[in-house]
Specification:
By secondary structure, this protein is mostly beta strands. It has 2 helices and 9 strands, in the order E-E-E-H-E-E-E-E-H-E-E. The chain has a 9-stranded mixed beta sheet with strand order 2-6-3-5-4-7-1-8-9. Its EC number is 4.1.1.11. Belongs to the PanD family.
Amino acid sequence: MQLTMLKGKIHRVTVTEAKLDYVGSITIDSDLLDAAGILEYEKVAVVNVNNGHRLETYTIAGEPGSGVICLNGAAAHFFDPGDTAIIMCYCQLDADEAKTHKPKVVFVDGKNHATRVTNYEKHGQIA
């Protein structure tokens, strides 16, 4: 049996751009991708904290250290610059692997730079 588990999460980033005239995807500062263990072109779920929209797309690595979070193509209809988003990536594990698996959770500052990387989050607590 395979279980779908959280692999990596970038928590509460600020959307910097939304570009309709693009094929699709989300461009993410490559430093954030690395910190969360998310690969370029990997499937992610993106949640807009401001309006509740949730979508799936794939990642494109942005300039390291830039703080870029850009929704491209159709996804740009659901996100505006300044919106807060959560980006999540999942993996498939067997039951034994799932017992010890710990996701990477990246917390950011107001400029989308990683301030803390952990593998634990407690319900109801952001700090």
